[in-house]
Request: fold
Amino acid sequence: MNEAPSAPLVRVRGLKMHFPVHAGLLRRHVGDIKAVDDISLDVNESETLGLVGESGCGKSTAGRAVLRLYDITDGSITIDGTDISNIDQDKLRHLRPKMQMIFQDPQASLNPRMTVAGIVGEPLVEHMSLSKNERLDRIYELMDAVGLARSFANRYPHEFSGGQRQRIGIARALALHPKFIVCDEPIAALDVSIQAQVVNLLEDLQERFGLTYLFISHDLSMVRHIADRVAVMYLGKIVELAPRDELYATPLHPYTQALLSAVPEPDPVRESQRKHIILTGDVPSPANAPVGCNFCTRCPKAEDICRQIDPEFREVAPGHFTACHFVTDTTRKTAGSTAGNEANT
Amino acid sequence: MLGALAAVAIAPPALAERGSDGHVNIIYWQAPSTMNPYLSGGTKELEAASLVLEPLARYDQDGNMVPWLAESVPTVDNGGVSADLKTITWKLKEGLVWSDGSAVTSADVIFSWKYCTDPEGGCAQSEKYNDVADVKAVDDRTVTVTFGVAKPFPYGPFVGAQAPIIQAAQFADCLGAKAPECTDANFGPIGTGPFKVTEFRPNDVISFEANSNYRDPAKPAFATVTFKGGGDTAAAGRAVLETGEFDYAWNMQLAPDVLAAMASKGKGQVVSAFGTLVERIMINLTNPDPALGDERATAKHPHPFLSDPAVRQALSMAVDRELLVEIGYGDAGRPTCNVLPAPEIYKSTANDGCMAQDVEGAKKLLDDAGWVPGADGVRQKEGVRLSMLYQTSTNAVRQDFQALIKQWWADIGIETELRNIDASVFFGGDPGSPDTFQKFYADIEMYANNFDGTDPESYMANWECKQAPTPETQWQGNNMPRYCSEDYDALVAQMAQTGKLEERAKLAKAMNDKLMQEYIIVPLVDRGRVSAHSNTLGGVVLNVWDSELWNIADWNRMK
Amino acid sequence: MLTYTIRRLLLAIPTLIAISLIIFLLLDLAPSDPTANLPLTIPPDVREKIRQSLGLGDPIYIRYLLWCKQFFVNEPLNMLEQWFGWDIGGDRLRVLSWQTRSPVVDLIVQRMPQTLWVVGMSYVVGVLIALPIGIISAYRQYSWFDQVGTFVSMVGFSVPTFFTGVLVIVIFSVWLGWFPSIYDTTHQVTDWQSFLFQIKQMIMPVAVLALFNAAQISRFMRASMLDNLNQDYVRTARAKGMRERTVVLVHVLRNSLIPVVTVIALGVPQIFGGAIITEQVFKVNGLGQLLIISIQGGDLPTVQTLTFIFAVLIILFNLVADVLYGVLDPRIRYD
Reply:
């Protein structure tokens, strides 16, 4: 499981997404918001890569940038062997069927003036030449797959509940037989009771259609449930990336440690024994990131070096990457073995 | 006979054929709302209606009466007016027909009187029929109007654009309260005039075509007329003088330079004619000193220096009337030395010496009268300084005039303080306000005034002694200078008993000359009416005494 | 929707009656005298007689009820008679204008064509140019096109039509001599030539008014587009791999049009109100000019009838706007 297949489905290298800031009378370019600042990751076929982080850390931007919903600032993105980092939107359009996205807010992301059949069927019109009946069949098929009654086909999004709307969004994403789906906080806007249903549906579909997910969420427990590997983002950068169990068992980066310590433990005894790491201060603005390590302003272990040199994002154990000056070889060895043990159990 | 002569005099070169000159476009920047002049007193309605409806007699451009539907103008001399000045007998021309072909008879004349005098009709011209006791038909073509009192000027009924003859057959069911319900008749009256209405759009446009039954077979030269209304003065001027879309525009009340710039385009010309409106300076013969309390500005206290005729004359001599006209009115004004400048028969020539400014003469006059310049340059005599308050209404042209005149008077050593008062207060006549032109709490005041029609009898009576505004009359009255002369009052009384036109003219001129030569009133500018017409439109004779379109039958297209 | 519409229409009746009373009272209380514009040479006693003959001597409630009877009973009956050739009989007094002494309704009917032609056309033209400008401005926000569009809208909105109107007359009528400066209301379109003339005489007033209308509507369109361009469903459409044209024209535009269409519908009564100033400048002499002349002339029956008809139209088009909203936006249902 730790052995990565030779060619990952999605390969991202040095991805940067900067938004220019204009100000003043003449709207001069005065700086950039570095929403995503040099991230690299691979997503293997049929796996789920979880991408976690606080809100505003750039994880949604990263997800959209990977699908080239933005024109990226720098870096390369290769999906299924095609480099899409710089191709124009028209060519990209023809590649869209392969890569789809499920959005956070199912209400806002569905056109209020289109019926379910319209929403699900629109990509079919655009990308496939189907007869009217074939298209309708496909729409029904998709609605069946996500668990929507066929009779809903002519209703408008506002007539549905949140969970049902997200199912419409999923059906819509599945319409063109995608390989890769970016799930951008797909359950954040849903009731807790519905969340599990939707996550189970996503897992189901992954199994049935061999899908690959980039699962973006701030919910660490949910990511633990669904992801195979997990990447942690802080202020536009990935600070740690590791197989799920290894990450949850032996987090190496102080930020990951702080995040995980904040997840409540269901067992009150263990909860009381746990050491909570409380982060102080606010996340710095991505328009004005600190010099050195991005996390240095809030890191409990920060020293002078952190405020001067940006730590390298390096592999400290097989499949375990992190960006921290204090992750030494020792830690690396122990961490590596622990991870191995856990993965083998 | 006089009428026939007049008709020949104004006829265009012969050989004209009815309708041969096509179409003529007229623009009035106020749109007529009805074609029935009896239901609206507005000038625009009167003038539009004058293409269709005609009176028995009307006034020409000089203010002389010319017979129109009547054979002649009745006078005492020709026996048409009775010696006691109580009846007048009109005789219609022979063979007159309405545009529908039926004959015009004395019944139509009588009906017109009945129509306008019906108490429920709300006739706007009922003033014209004042004192008419009865109108009787003598025969089919002859009517006699009987007045309840002696009328030295019996030409109110059936004369001028305000009192035309309407067809009895058409308006028979429209008397009194029913008048407004006869929309078709009010919008398309059948008339005797050169044109008849083909379409009337109230407050917008009227289309006319030549009346095939018009009494002169060669007229009118134009087959059709469009009479467009609405917009503003400048736009109407532009349409005639700059773009040439229209042939005739009425009442061009524009600044002289604006009008001149438009006329310089060479498409049309500006024509003006002068009525009786005179911009004048009134001299207060009584003392307006506030210290006099209730007796301020009353005849009890003569003015300390304006009661000296030499001073009054000097004021008049120092004024350059030509320059005032040029600055304030351009083509719409001309200098005048008479308070009664028109009609032609009433116009005196005895005072024309005032036309030229004479500063030196004025100085000499004052010197001779003993008014000598003091240390500050202001003339004085026995401790009385020639220092005056000069008031008028708020109005850009009037303030220009004030400034100029103040300078001229300063040149001859008279000091002037200026004051202007909002027109609604100045002319408002409120006895409680100290600022009305009747109270005249100033030494000098300036405004314009005129009279309706051509007969100056009541206008000249304004300067009778008893017309002076006083506290006893609630400050009502028109004799602003508080002029009081037995001789003058005698002339007024004499005119009220004189029927012969020439005699009346002599009396009116005498009164005018008396006022002018005693310098009670200093006339400045005779303000006229200005219209514009295309260079290709011939036959226009601007007339301020009647409808401007009075002779439209003679209009033609110049080749 | 039908029951909703009917309910709204029923509710409009008491509203309109109240409006008619308020208009009547306001007009009556305002200082105005139908004889004020007559020459000063007409003496006061004659003026008083004229006022009496217009019915001004009656108490105010009698005059109001008389107007109501004339407008709500006599005029409709008269119309029925005219349309269907019936003879209902009876002597019915119509609402008469004081200025022209003719039925107000006839005046309105007479003025309608030129107002609809000129003001209506300017509204249509204004909308037709406003929509693309608004769409492109929003899509290319802050581009030079947007900047120019914003500037033109600002000019169109803030420079009054009495200025632009006279300006185009001076340029195109006086200097260039292309178009007539005075509108011919009697002109009838019968063939190609007369149609061309109609176009020529309409161009300037329509252009001036269209600029004004377009300025307003293009701003609305732009704002509404901007609102929707950043919506999630637009990103969804892009993620679906839809063409940019489809994204903008189908997804964004259709949603952005909902508020714009209602604004356009609410503006329709203004067409019937005419454009008082533009009609005066170009001498179109439509309903706007009729209203202003009537106000100046103290012609209360005409002012009352016209303003009341405007009130009816405003209420009607408010309802139309609401119903349209319901038709266009599936989220809104009136039941």
Observations:
- The first strand of chain A starts at residue 10 and ends at 23.
- The mean pLDDT of chain A is 84.
- Chain A is about 35% helix and 25% strand.
